[in-house]
């Protein structure tokens, strides 16, 4: 995938009942629906009445999220990640603009998320607006929040329709022992790498202090979006 960055117009004229962005400093979505000038108000609890990121709290999401991590921990291996990096590093799937990519995520609900069961486009906008409210002058950070999960399009048919365990969820290093701080750590015992002597020590195949550039992390949307971002085309 290649992302095209278009320089924003200085003025946005919207007819009828829609607003003028240059007059209100509001983010105007397609269809002319503005988000509040003061930004999105972040809730203190998740959609199910619990604190955020409580993976063991009983809710209608809990069992599905745990099953996701069971599959992820079993299937994410060192060799699998090397294959994915080679395949998706070609960046030959599509070429599109950022908003077009955002709209594709209207079709995706993240199975690993214990806090939200809505399409990912809502998460992107919530993240961007919350950060815009807290850091109004850091426009680069607003953009980062908006695009940070665009790599989740890997789960869509046009990008290979990878299973969600290969796209979303927490990331962790491979080629070394699985740290017990990982969510639902118990399922790693069924990962083929778990029994590999070379991968079973704290440092595994790495030398201490080698740096993240030399670490193989579990494959997913973060790695893919990083690859794409290195090849952004500015128009």
From TrEMBL:
Organism: Glycine soja (Wild soybean)
Name listed for the protein in its UniProt record: Inositol oxygenase
Primary subcellular site in the record, as a coarse category: cytoplasm
Keyword field: Ascorbate biosynthesis, Cytoplasm, Iron, Metal-binding, Oxidoreductase
GO cellular component terms, A-Z: cytoplasm
Similarity-based family: Belongs to the myo-inositol oxygenase family.
Pathway involvement of the protein, from the record: Polyol metabolism; myo-inositol degradation into D-glucuronate; D-glucuronate from myo-inositol: step 1/1
Cofactor list: Fe cation
Entries under PANTHER family matching the protein: INOSITOL OXYGENASE 2, MYOINOSITOL OXYGENASE
């Amino acid at each position: 995938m290649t992302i095209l960055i278009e320089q924003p117009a200085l003025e946005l004229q919207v007819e009828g009942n829609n607003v003028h962005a240059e007059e209100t400093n509001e983010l105007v979505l397609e269809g002319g629906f503005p988000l509040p000038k003061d930004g999105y108000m972040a809730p203190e609890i998740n959609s199910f009445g619990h604190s955020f990121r409580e993976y063991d709290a009983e809710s209608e999401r809990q069992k599905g999220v745990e099953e996701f991590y069971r599959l992820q921990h079993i299937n994410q291996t060192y060799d699998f990640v090397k294959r994915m990096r080679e395949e998706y590093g070609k960046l030959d799937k599509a070429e599109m603009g950022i908003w077009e990519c955002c709209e594709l995520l209207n079709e995706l609900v993240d199975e690993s998320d214990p806090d939200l069961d809505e399409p990912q486009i809502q998460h992107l906008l919530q993240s961007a607006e919350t950060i815009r409210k807290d850091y109004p002058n850091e426009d680069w950070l607003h953009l980062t929040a908006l695009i940070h999960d665009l790599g989740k399009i890997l789960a869509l048919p046009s990008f290979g329709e990878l299973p969600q365990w290969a796209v979303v969820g927490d990331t962790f290093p491979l080629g070394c022992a699985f740290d017990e701080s990982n969510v639902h750590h118990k399922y790693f015992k069924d990962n083929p790498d778990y029994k590999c002597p070379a991968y079973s020590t704290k440092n595994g195949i790495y030398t201490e202090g080698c740096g993240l550039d030399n670490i193989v992390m579990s494959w997913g949307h973060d790695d893919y979006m990083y690859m794409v971002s290195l090849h952004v085309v500015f128009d």
